[in-house]
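Please study the protein below:
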Amino acid sequence: MMKRQDVELWGGLECTVARIGDRYRNQIAETGHQDRIGDLDAIAALGIRTLRYPILWETVAPEDPDAADWRWHDARLARLRELGLSPIAGLLHHGSGPRYTDLLDPTFPERLARHAARVAERYPWIAAYTPVNEPLTTARFSGLYGVWYPHTRDDASFLRALVNQCRAVVLCMRAIRKVNPAARLIQTEDLGKCFSTPMLAYQAAHENERRWLSFDLLTGRVDRDHPWHARFAANGISGGDLAIFQDGDAAPDVIGINHYLTSERYLDQRLRRYPREMWGGNGHHRYADVEAVRVPLPPGSTGPEPRLREAWERYGLPLAVTEVHHGCTRDEQLRWLKEVWDAAHRLRAGGADLHAVTIWSLFGAVDWNSLLTRKVGFYESGAFDARCTPPRPTALAKAAGSLARTGRFDHPALDQPGWWHRPERHYRPTHYQPAGAAAITTATPRRLLITGATGTLGRAFARICDLRGLAHRLISRHDMDVASPESVADALERHRPWAVVNTAGYVRVADAEREPDRCHRENALGAEVLARACADHGIPCVTFSSDLVFDGQLGRAYVESDPVSPACVYGASKAEAERRVAGVHAGALVVRTSAFFGPWDEHNFVFTTLRDLAAGRPVHASDEAVVSPTFVPDLVHATLDLLIDEETGVWHLANQGMVSWFELAARVARSARFDSALVVRSSGAARALTALGSERGLLLPSLDNAFDRCLQAMRP
């Protein structure tokens, strides 16, 4: 448990408008917030009272500086005031400005300052600003690495982009303070650190000096004695260019640190220890540039706490953590938020003037795994899952609400450390365990109970729980007969789980026609008995149903509210299970899914098709039955996230898309480069389309994406 010590919880929306070539990407549009003013009410309901909010130059005057459109911002900012939410106005967020300028434009600072003046005049009540988010980071990715516009890759462009952005901050705050003299500057930066082997210590030292440049400029520290002064001069940035910073009138009122698990890096010339995509160099040495958390380093050297402490000791200015986000599974997101929150409290207790922690990406982010360079729709959820309409509060939202009101939150997932503390994170096997990691693990962590130890799904849950650091117990029907109240009661008493995942049941669809009583007992009665016992103990539970609760005659993909209409004994047993579970456990989660495939068992259609094709045997597959094949790892991850989020009722979880069995077999043959003529179309059965859609949220990736990942995992 965590105790409140006057550290506030702020919120923020991922709002980058990045230019890549001639194309702009707007995260506010891609996450859907652009069309949902109701998001602001959902944020306010969490108890958050300070919100980093965009009034971005590119969205106000994208084509002409004299043609500003304020309508969207007028409506949102008026609603913020009504809700009692105080904005920290962001004017440029990893952007290069509208098309009529860029980061290397000599007039860029004055142009942005003009936008700032208009914002202040229109909204004089706004008391806090971030004119430019992460100027150093943006300069690196735009001017040094060529990822974002203007896509240059040289020191001169990098330093000019940095100075232009910092100069813009100074001019913006001067313009804003003419309207509101009390306006505060919340200046953000990703303040990572570089570690290295001894041979590359010179490169690490260079990068570690560089990481302070934006704050050093704004606080007036870049004088003739500064380590980078000569480098500025050598790259065409004169003393006159730097003179604007000497007064320090734009020194931050609050230094905002954005820290991520990838912020800290490790440089190593031993290339073959690391994936090839990490290889690079500086023109003098070749080396891998990898995440420092994946390398055994001295205890206490990495993480948010030492980076925040360094900033406090260097500047002595008020601090805030202005972005906390982890694009990972829900349990890891909770663990990262807790770690940063705890670090902030320890620093404050030790005397640092640390004001707040900001839960970032409240409505998620899209394609940040490629720094926005690939438009594939890779979505990372945040406190809300924007794939649902309206956005669905996740466990992070519950944590945020608790932190905002009480300063503490708890969840069984927190009993285990995050992946960045577990030994398996390392690129090379090691027995090294950092000091403090053991303390994160509760002596007796709360466990999940998973039924179905001999089944594909049960084993997959155990495997992925191991991967996610979720303590669990996988049991078979010999350990617990789900249809026996006495057996279930005994197992729950013995294992005392915080939740139950029921994957047990009768799965042989064809055999169910001649064994209806057994199928009914294992699928319907068993699900009811287990759900009733969980309800009596106040334990969440999840059980699995099937697309075969539908007869396939609707003519479109089925959604959750469609009435069931089973056409076989197996489907009828699952439909009855759904009805019974809902009747005895209002908090139960029922997951309907379809046509498992995956790399970990030999009994799914994709595996058997590959086996037969490899042996030169024909594969007979129906083109009459249309389904939504579901990649088992995706299904398990999404189910665990929903369980942690405390979701209830019926959810459809299947990869997005639909195919006939014949089409799927043909796709397997093409992708694996087998003779497609071996795939034989069979027909004669009644046409049935039992594909699953969802009105609650499409949480799984596309079928094509899942299929490609499955084949990759199955290759030797």
